[in-house]
Amino acid sequence: MPRTRATQTDIARRAGVSQAMVSYVVNGNTRVSIPDETRRRIEAVMQELGYVPNALARGLRSGQTRTIGLVVPDNTNPFFAEIARHIENLGFEKGFSVILCNSDYDLVKENAHVDVLLAKQVDGVIFCASGGATEARDKLRASKTPVVTIDHDISNLRNETVVIDYRLGGYLATRHLLDQGHRRVGCITGPRTLSSSTERLAGYQDALAEAGLKVDTGLIVPGDFRIQGGEAAALRLLNGRRKPSAIFAFNDLMAIGAIQSARILELKVPADVSVIGFDDIPLAQAIHPALTTIAQPISEIARLAMEVFLKQTQAGGTGTATPTAVPSLVLKPTLIVRSSTAPIAR
Ligand code: RIB
Q1: What CATH code is carried by the domain that includes residue 173?
Q2: pTM
Q3: Candidates 71, 72, 80, 331: which one to mutate for ligand 1, based on the most atoms within 8 Å of Cβ?
Q4: 319-341 residue pLDDT tens
Q5: Residue 326's pLDDT is what?
Q6: Which of 9, 51, 124, 306 could serve as 90's disulfide partner, Cβ 3.0–4.6 Å?
Q7: Cis (ω within 30 of 0) for the bond into 53?
């Protein structure tokens, strides 16, 4: 006979009290005064029977499941791992559990995850998109579930979003290399469907234009925000007809891949080629040479995303913003100079 879970009815029967009394104790109802002896007896029976409150039943009663859906492209990327960890910590402090979903930059997978999160009646979704406009967004927009987007501004969701000024980040990275005398700056982009990548490219182009340099499309190679993608893209650049003296990779993992490629080609970093990344993941300062990069305020992104989520959820938010336009929360990136970049060798 399969072991069935103890119910509040079982507890009431064993403790010799009403089911309502058991419910008051289970739900911590302070509006009803319960004699200490009765409370102790009920708690003892709960422990004896191994009673676990039914979260689904509680959710139906309260209208909350105390769960947050978090959708990111790939939490093996330390950037997303840190975001997830901060959000999980902040959620735990407020009595929420986090359901983490990896979309792998796969829109079908992203859509399937959103279906599950909505079916589980999560109290809200913190959503980092993995590509252009998708069915998943349409579903989130149509649902009344509060949504906070991070990393990509998805205004058609009419929700609040927490992003970085990526264009400024791309400008700072490129300007740093130009200030060091580099004129052939290679660029390894992220997936072209992501605004976080297209904005960085715009910043790269801004810095070149400011220096009076034309954009050489032969120096711009697509990447995938992964180490292997960065390595392959850097090999293309370093074996190209106009070998760059510096490479700007749109995230730290691809910058690490670019440093690996330089090693394969027996090029020294930064003596033969400078490399700058983006994110400032913990690994950036641990590798050799330590990576010059553009730092994103990762813990601040998570804190703001959670703040917006709580504001929407506790205000009975329905995932749609107030009639006025909802501002994006735009944070600033900062240049962190380490050992992987140096003035061009004369
Ligand atoms: O490293 C992952 C990248 O994807 C980060 O730069 C983040 O901004 C996201 O766009």
Answers
A1: 3.40.50.2300
A2: 0.84
A3: 80
A4: 444 433 455 788 999 999 999 99
A5: 52
A6: 306
A7: no
